[in-house]
Amino acid sequence: MVDNRYATALVIACVLSIIATVYLSVAVGTPHWYQYISPPVYGEANASELRALQEEFMDGEFDEKTYSDSLFRLNGTVGLWWRCLQVPTENHWYKEPDPKMVLDCVSFTLQQQFTPKYKEPGNHNSGEDLIRTYLWRCQFLLPLVSLGLVVLAGIIGFCACLCHSLAPTLGIGVLHLLAGLCTLATVCCYLAGMDLLHRVSMLPDRVDASLGWSLYLALISSPLHMMAAALLVWAARSHSQNYYRMTAYRVA
């Protein structure tokens, strides 16, 4: 028999875990982790240059400097799996005061996720930048680890429900704590990597950069997983202590 307090804690923990997992899944699958706001374009010459950048971004060979310059100049957004540009729908968009824009995205392939970063982006002779390389790989792998831990916790919890047992609750709480830490580490690695990129690849004049809503979703999911972990650990510890007291009382 489970005390009402423990049952309430378990229900709240499950709700928090589901919300956090949904937030993290949406964050991983969307490109709005970091966004750039570029100045408007005037003149056909500048428009032709930006059109060439767009074509190179969409169809050209993968190169960090090329896609970074395109992101800087064309209101780009970049996430863990996607990089996107805001492109006009009309051919003579530069003549219109307020052209209609759409988001055109390209995904990072698995091979591109593990491509080395260089001390000078685009210059393969400058030497590999190990810090940026491993920060990028960590920001790609850690959210997958986090989601995997939550899925494992869910499977264990489902089996525990079928067996009417609270014994695995402590382990499930620890898995949620690790998932929250992995998500927090993902955000830290991403922000550190973007900061290092901006140090070696300066932003053009009048281009502003800001954090996107996808990053905030990931940031919110981390404490939600930790709160779920705290409730699960509390329920497991309290139920265990109460069980041992009742056993000692019956023996006595």
Automatic annotation (TrEMBL):
<feature type="transmembrane region" description="Helical">
    <location>
        <begin position="7"/>
        <end position="26"/>
    </location>
</feature>
<keyword id="KW-0812">Transmembrane</keyword>
<feature type="transmembrane region" description="Helical">
    <location>
        <begin position="140"/>
        <end position="163"/>
    </location>
</feature>
<protein>
    <submittedName>
        <fullName>Claudin domain-containing protein 1-like</fullName>
    </submittedName>
</protein>
<feature type="transmembrane region" description="Helical">
    <location>
        <begin position="170"/>
        <end position="193"/>
    </location>
</feature>
<feature type="transmembrane region" description="Helical">
    <location>
        <begin position="213"/>
        <end position="236"/>
    </location>
</feature>
<dbReference type="InterPro" id="IPR004031">
    <property type="entry name" value="PMP22/EMP/MP20/Claudin"/>
</dbReference>
<dbReference type="GO" id="GO:0016020">
    <property type="term" value="C:membrane"/>
</dbReference>
<keyword id="KW-1133">Transmembrane helix</keyword>
<dbReference type="Pfam" id="PF13903">
    <property type="entry name" value="Claudin_2"/>
</dbReference>
<dbReference type="InterPro" id="IPR042356">
    <property type="entry name" value="CLDN1"/>
</dbReference>
<keyword id="KW-0472">Membrane</keyword>
